[in-house]
Amino acid sequence: MTIFDPFRVALLLDALSSHVTVGKGMSTEAPAAPQKINLRRPDIMAAVQAQVLSHYRSDLVERIRANGHILSAGDLTIKLAKEFGFCYGVERAIDLAYAARRAYPERRIFLLGEIIHNPEVNDQIRRLGIVTIAGKPGDDEINQLRPEDIVIIPAFGTEVATRRKLEEKGCQFVDTTCGDVMSVWKRVRQYSKESVTSIIHGKAWHEETKATSSQARASGGGHYLVVFTLAETDYVCNYIVKGGNKAEFLEKFKGAYSEGFDPDVHLQSIGVANQTTMLRGETEEVQRRLKSAMSQKYGETELQKHFRFFDTICGATQDRQDALGKLLQDPLNLLLVIGGYNSSNTSHLAEMGEAKLATYFIKNAAKMVSDKVIIHYDQHKHEEIESPNWLPSGKITVGITAGASCPNNLIEDAIRRLFELRGISVQQLLAN
């Protein structure tokens, strides 16, 4: 995000008019089917962009970008990955949420879960008076919604049953679902129509994967299975080729398959999809192993009848992974990964760093307590841990990247804190 951009405003106006809909029951005169509501008001969008920029932009980060993504002062050098932070889908989701509040200042507005996986951004959304609700079809919170209420669907989308419930309630809803996510949904629905079971590479507990899984059941007859690791993939492959203990299979993947799923029946024809924020290389390996298993089971000549695959990795996710891969080729003393701990794309950036050098996954600059102590997220323990003596003395180079849901102002805070720990003031930093 940089300066006011009329072209971006025009894009946002198009997004608003296309993604704000009203369900049945908005009034006694409402049409039977949802209709678009036009919010094409330049005054709203200009104000929204100014407000969003004031909350999340960073002059310092833009200066570093312009300087080849490097900043040096004293014996400390910062190297930013070439791609990091907010992607277009995240910016769009945030803009739509801000625009909804500005367009309807007196209306009740609710958000299903989190707009994106970043605590600071979600706090800002709540400060706008937008109330977070769980967003499950049977929840009392949804049952208490009124037709005149506005409900924001987050960037990862929502489950089919939840959306249908909102339509039944007659709520007006602002859909910020990322286009890349909807592309996966389209593929999964197609698999379902063709009686092909969706094997989804992702995290069964993640909001996006839950939403994607529900698309396999949208017409009532489809099936899905979620695999998270290559070890789980190998288990499925072995079952496809050799068969196995069905009760053991169902227990192992409990909570990660569709109602009525039978591995003896529903693994005969499969199509691979994925959570858009997974590592591309890992998803490709999942696909390769499953393809190989189906080839062993049915033969190469029959493979097309039993196996489908479509590349559904998010472009922005891949750009950030590729940029970090290049950054890790430089001589670095350590890497900071900034973002929400429940952000899938950010966690994979941290995994990439951990495989190469000392890496610290932090949600904000306050986690750098001192040059001796840092509090960071351990993905294996699923909790924050404290590490001593993390910042080496002498001349060092620190790499920095951030997930697609991390705003530039938090990246600036981390950069400032690093220099402060070396005795270099913010004033000195900005003067260079």
In short:
The protein is α/β, with parallel strands linked by helices.
Which features characterize this protein?
Rossmann fold, 18 helices, 17 strands, six-stranded mixed beta sheet, 3 domains, disordered N terminus, Cobalt-precorrin-4 Transmethylase, domain 1, 432 residues, five-stranded mixed beta sheet
Shape: globular
For this structure, the CATH topology of the largest domain is: Cobalt-precorrin-4 Transmethylase, domain 1
CATH class of the largest domain: Alpha Beta
Query: What does the largest sheet look like?
Result: 6 strands, mixed
Secondary-structure class: alpha/beta
DSSP strand content: 15-25%
Please bin the fraction of helical residues.
40-55%
Radius of gyration: 23 Å
| Total helical elements | 18
The counted number of beta strands is: 17
Strand order of the largest sheet: 2-1-8-7-5-6
Distance between the amino and carboxyl termini:
23 Å
Average of pLDDT: 88
CATH architecture of the largest domain: 3-Layer(aba) Sandwich
Low-confidence stretches: 1-18, 22-38
The CATH homologous superfamily of the largest domain corresponds to 4-hydroxy-3-methylbut-2-enyl diphosphate reductase, catalytic domain
Domain tally: 3
